[in-house]
Amino acid sequence: MADFIRARSDExxxxxxxxxxxxxxxxxxxxxxxxxxxxxxxxxxDCTRANLYKYVSxxxxxxxxxxxxxxxxxxxxxxxAFPEGCGYSMEVFAEVWAGILNAxxxxxxxxxxxxxxxxxxxxxxxxxxxxxxxxxxxxxIAAMLASHLQMSQDTAYQMLLNIHYHAVGINSIGRWNPLxxxxxxxxxxxxxxxxxxxNMKEFILMNLKTFSxx
Length: 214
Prior knowledge:
The chain is mainly α. The protein has eleven helices and no strands. The radius of gyration is 20 Å and the shape is globular.
């Protein structure tokens, strides 16, 4: 792809990086993580691996950038849904939050492999920038929750983590995996179906009630 190779300005380089991320995001929606390589990414972009190395050193660096983008989209949606003075009851708060998580399951998909895979093979500079952004945004959300729910920011942050990691786990269990389907069929196991949104609504409400008492 000649246009991809000819990038010179910072703006063009940002555009090329976005093209790379778009391709990887599409691949990750269709394939398991281990089937995505710099070679398959380059083939989709119609460029060479050598050209990809101008932007990233590993595929994990691309996934790290996407994880950051997905997290920011999710946090922005939370901030927009709970404006200052909204005065929602806990039940409404839980329902709205569950709906936002349901709409951002792609964010949870990346988080499922974030600490165990993605963060293990990136440059320390990229990881430091990612962590700086993560804590700035997470504390922003914790402050918003603390204000609405009349709890300390530390308590709100703990609750945020509780809800996040439960959502990541439930999303992972419910995600279609052909190998798991085959294994269950081999043992004649019928796994219970999970309604992600309803499960999260109940879990969030439980956390709101529990942490508001602390």
